Amino acid sequence: MAASMACQAAVRGLRGASTKHLFINRNKLVIPRRWLNLQEYQSKKLMQESGVAVQRFFVADTASEALEAARRLKAKEIVLKAQILAGGRGKGVFDSGLKGGVHLTKDPAVVGELATKMLGYKLTTKQTPQEGVKVKTVMVAEALDISRETYFAILMDRTCNGPVMVGSPQGGVDIEEVAATTPELIFKEVIDIFEGVREDQALRMAANLGFKGPLERQAADQIKRLYDLFLKVDATQVEVNPFGETPEGQVVCFDAKINFDDNAEFRQKAVFSMDDTEESDPIEIEAAKHDLKYIGLDGNIACFVNGAGLAMATCDIIDLNGGKPANFLDLGGGVTESQVYTAFRMLSADPKVEAILVNIFGGIVNCAIIANGITKACRELELKVPLVVRLEGTNVQEAKRILSESGLPITSATDLDDAAKKAVAAIAK
Which of 99, 230, 275, 280 has the fewest CB atoms within 10 Å, i.e. the most exposed one? Predict the structure, then answer.
């Protein structure tokens, strides 16, 4: 179980990581990718709509709206949270001078004052760029005391071929640490996808999480509602930490992370329309519009490939030959000439790109389509940087003919290592 939890932790880490960096060494290559990004209040809204117990809250875009929201809550204590797609908000610092993106107060008037120092200002945390992220929205919520914290999640588990519930009475901390140090405190229930969460499973998990008396029934009900949400939004993971109880005898989902199946976008239009892209790289957003997977990196050799595995190998071998990849760009399988053109347009517009390495293995992809797209892009975009091309697979001889007869300054490579060496050498000239 510890190993399984560690694997899930790695996935969560990648999903929450900045897409600005690639970590390469001689044996390991880790590439984060962009996922659907929802603000905290958006996730809470989805939970609320499925009957999951969350704190009462309002969202505000101005200080006056925040003040009005605080008054409407009529709560004993109020929590004001800056809404950005980064962790560590509580210890963050605003360029207005305000310290902390999360504040507690019993005075509604203070909410208005704090909001004036949050909205329109940049918040810098350990997970944001150095310049910080501008806060455009705040969440004003009822602050509830937590008498006990637990951990609960529903996630897709490859080894179980379906959804699994995972819980621990040790909540509010890194569950990976719990799994590593006290694995006996991790409880797991495999869910039959046709049957759903059974009553006995929900009650057993609630008991294992340490809920007693009436709270056990409450927790079991919340567990079943969370599974309903999991199915409803085509989630790959719903993680609640803490899944807690209050001194007043309520079971509440205090904080949650929802990950979604990108392949279900066609039937989850409402959810995906909430995607907050303002904090994402504009090039990544543009690439996604053309069904291209792009992640900007810190090097100067652009990688133009088809398939994530090939992309990782290409980035790695560039590094092994003394170069640094400028991006991770995956064309995928059903590539068209227009996609090739768009990809070249994006790569050539990047000022740090000093060479482009094309590495295509034509299985599903017809190499001739790639060659036609390359020659068209080179001519129309008047490509100024060295271009190294390695093609193998379907219709490769026709593709090589197209490139050789184009009259364009394209350097051919025999294999991946040869391509990487030639790209690195082209920059050194």
Answer: 99
Cα angle vertex 20, ends 18, 23, to 5°? 90
Q: Cα separation of 306 and 363, whole Å?
A: 10
Q: Is 294 an annotated catalytic residue?
A: no
Query: How far is it, in rounded angstroms, from Cα 43 to Cα 22?
Result: 28
The 10s digit of each residue's pLDDT in 242-255 is 999 999 999 999 98
In this structure, which amino acid lies at residue 334?
G
Angle in degrees, CA 400, 314, 333, rounded to 5:
65
d(CA 150, CA 428): 56
* Residue of 41, 151, 294, 341 marked catalytic: 151
Whole-model pTM?
0.65
- pLDDT, residue 20, reads 34
Per DSSP, the three-state class of 358 is strand
Residue 24 — pLDDT band, cuts 50, 70, 90?
Answer: very low
Residue 223 identity: I
Our answer to whether residue 239 is catalytic in this structure is: yes
> Beta strand 293-296 with 148-157: parallel, antiparallel or unpaired?
unpaired
